[in-house]
Design brief:
It is a single chain. This protein is an alpha/beta fold. The chain has a single domain (3-251), classed as TIM Barrel (Alpha-Beta Barrel), CATH 3.20.20.140. Helix content is 39%, strand content 17%. It has helices at residues 19-29, 44-53, 75-82, 105-121, 133-142, 159-167, 184-192, 222-232, 237-251, and strands spanning 3-8, 31-36, 57-61, 87-96, 125-130, 150-152, 171-174, 198-200. The chain has an 8-stranded parallel beta sheet with strand order 1-2-3-4-5-6-7-8. The radius of gyration is 17 Å and the shape is globular. The protein starts with a strand and ends in a 6-residue tail after the last helix.
Length: 257
């Protein structure tokens, strides 16, 4: 059985300083591939080194909506970096109205540039969306993000929002949140979403699933999320693992098995 952690931050502490152990745990749990996701351009070179050093780790490039860099990346910057063969996606990008306060035109403009870059180079988007579903979906539609495709990472919304994202051609990714008792709406989405359009992730080192909730998360724990989603869908774990792994490589076409 092979699983993919479609969104993790291996460069974040404490994962970065214990990487050999983290990767060993992942292998033991059947997590064969990982996508290490960029949140700013300063960290990207280190992520690129990880992807170049480990064939089962892939990289993205982008600036998280809550980051406030000294200089905003231009579309040309993102295109230039995104054309690197080590990069399989643009992001994470999107909108977050929970952490950022005040006028957020800068956040929306940054999101637009990421969408434009993804369309230009033909690589999918990794979308972060928090308390901003309406504006996120509107921008994806108005800027033809369906031409690039992508994934709604760490999905926490209800079926109405999921259906709109699916209609745009996007995939839905479930993190450890789906294992939380109070995540009723997300669990409903996990039951209803088409099997060929779902992914699994940890967002580690954050959001550890049950039974590790509250501890440092790591890619190995993808297996717990997979087991819970399989239970929600009343299907064998190995079938869910095979489907979500195939989905990952269908979406991220630059990633190689």
């Amino acid at each position: 059985m092979e699983l993919v952690d479609s969104h993790c931050h291996l460069d974040f502490e404490p994962l970065g300083s214990t990487l050999p152990q983290v990767l060993s745990h992942a292998q033991e749990a059947g997590v064969a591939y990982m996508l290490c996701v960029s949140v700013n351009l300063q960290a990207y070179p280190g992520i690129r080194v990880l992807a170049r050093t480990h064939k089962h780790i892939f990289a993205s490039v982008g600036v998280h909506p809550n980051e406030r860099p000294a200089a905003e990346p231009t579309t040309a910057d993102l295109v230039n970096l995104g054309q690197d063969p080590m990069v399989v996606a643009i992001g994470e990008t999107g909108l977050d109205y929970f952490r950022s306060q005040g006028p957020l035109d800068w956040q929306r403009e940054r999101f637009r540039r990421h969408i434009q870059a993804a369309r230009q180079i033909g690589k999918p988007l990794i979308i972060h969306m928090r308390d901003a579903a309406v504006d996120t979906l509107d921008l994806l539609r108005s800027h033809r993000a369906d031409e690039a495709g992508g994934v709604m990472h760490c999905f926490t919304e209800d079926w109405t929002v999921a259906r709109q994202a699916l209609d745009l051609g996007f995939y839905i990714s479930f993190s450890g949140i789906v294992t939380f008792k109070n995540a009723v709406a997300v669990q409903a989405v996990a039951r209803k979403a088409p099997l060929d359009r779902i992914l699994l992730e940890t967002d580690s080192p954050y959001l550890a699933p049950v039974p590790h909730r509250g501890r440092t998360n790591e890619p190995a724990y993808t297996r717990h999320t997979a087991a819970h989603v399989a239970e929600l869908r009343s299907m064998p774990l190995d079938e869910l693992a095979a489907a979500t792994t195939d989905n990952f490589f269908r979406l991220f076409t630059q990633a190689r098995r």
